Amino acid sequence: MTDHGSPTTSTAFCYRHPDRPTRLSCSECGRPICVECSNDAAVGQKCPECSVPVGRNRVIDARTIRRVDRATTPVTWTLIAVNVAVFLIGRVDPETGNRIFREFSQIALFAENGVARGIDAGEVWRG
Q1: Which side of the chain, N or C, has fewer Cβ within a 10 Å radius?
Q2: 45-46 vs 21-22, strand pairing mode
């Protein structure tokens, strides 16, 4: 007669810490790893060796790759300055702000062959 007792499970130990039993394993190489050694990956957990990108000795934080300052983004800062200036003009003199808005909205309305487009023409999804 066969014994149908408790199932036998072999306890795996972390390959870096042989005294720690674990049920985790690296999703890339399959080695058993403990919670301390595991690194979160897009799918599953990875051991420290598999989580290092190919060709690099360490993981580089995205913020340290390229620092962006005002001197390297002149278009962005120009657009922000124009928007702030138009806002301030509208706050100081509402009629001038309305006139500026009307002029620029007319450019968008007649952009295609003189045909009126936009919310005024019934195209409410353009709002």
Answers
A1: N
A2: unpaired
Answer for the pair 57, 48: CB distance below 8 angstroms, yes or no: no
Note the pLDDT tens digit of each residue in 6-59. Answer: 555 678 999 999 999 999 999 989 999 999 989 888 888 999 888 876 555 566
The residue with tokens 């301390």 is 36
pTM of the model: 0.36
- The rounded distance, in Å, linking the Cα atoms of 32 and 38 is 9
Alpha helices in the chain (DSSP H): 48-51, 62-65, 74-92, 94-109
Show the tokens assigned to 14: 């972390």
Q: Are 22 and 32 in contact (CB under 8 A)?
A: yes
Cα–Cα distance measured from residue 60 to residue 43, given in angstroms and rounded to the nearest whole number: 20
Contact 38, 24 (CB under 8 A): yes
d(CA 111, CA 113): 6
